[in-house]
């Protein structure tokens, strides 16, 4: 038993830690190593929300696709996560704003 545990620990130490990455809808790969991610189970629109508070980057999974939004304030993310309808909040205040260039990462 002790030997098996020692072997398991040795394997864990030797295994490299790899950050999770996602490919966004514009085919860019984002390393989520600095993001705080939450799986969403109370929305029919959003599946996952990841936020990097240092860079103010938001990655949202909707419909099986990930999209990145830049320059999103932490307050906006808090409002999104606390909204009665996360999908409505997201569509009105984040997705629409990205189309208008406010949260567009290429701007």
TrEMBL record:
One Pfam family named in its UniProt record: KTSC
Record domain KTSC: where: 43-96
Alphabetical keyword list: Signal
Signal found in the keyword field: yes
InterPro entries given in the database record: KTSC_dom
Residues of the signal peptide: 1-19
Superkingdom to which the source organism belongs: Bacteria
The protein, known as: KTSC domain-containing protein
Organism: Bradyrhizobium nanningense
